[in-house]
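Subject: Predicted fold for Fido domain-containing protein, 243 residues

User T.R. writes:
Posting the sequence so we have a shared reference for the thread.
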Amino acid sequence: MDPLAPLLDLADVAPAFASARDAVDAAHRHRALRKHGGQVAAEASLRAAVASAALDGSRFDLEEVRGGTVTDPVVQGALRVAEALPGLVDLWPRAPRQVLAKLHVLAARGVVHDHDLGRLTSGAERIDALAGLVAGNETTPPMLLAAVVHAELITLRPFAGPAGVVARAAARLTLIGRGFDPRGLVTAEVGHLSREPEYVGSAGAYATGTTDGVRSWLRHYAAAVTAGAEEIVVIGDGVLAAV
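User M.O. replies:
I've generated the structure tokens; pasting them so everyone works from the same file.
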């Protein structure tokens, strides 16, 4: 029995998730992906990393980051995380705590003391519960599980430094590993950034533990995934225009 299933019964959540799913499915059919899927995936990964760093307070122009002139440690950490994600997909459902520690090591190097890399600073019991929810879970719908993973990690902030980068990466891993977005194209991070006040507000609402707070977060997450799907179209159109 899926312990998260009742969340889909909250008002407007299931339709929002269904709409986001439709947007992703449509974006996955973009014709640029037939011959230029690698380019689209690389650009999506870059944009997701830049957006994730911005949400943790390190805001830089995409073209500057692309050009290699940005040395900010949070940006560099987000880029390292993005590069490492494909190699962590299979490990995530088998050893989620190990993966979270690895993500933090990658994200926070140069930001926090080396001694704190990969080490929990709070929320150990809830992290254990979250790991239990992730490990081997093939029942919870992928987007719902990703939304809860993300919300739990930004609520707990169990690591020092850019814990948000870790949270967003873990959610991305969930979408990829569960087959919702197997090529890692959906830049939900861009969606969060484009709706940043809502992102912050709904995350805070989720942290209250109320039904309305959880509902607010889930609706936001669906909107962010939808925006991430729309970004695939933008990237794909740009790739086709350049060839």
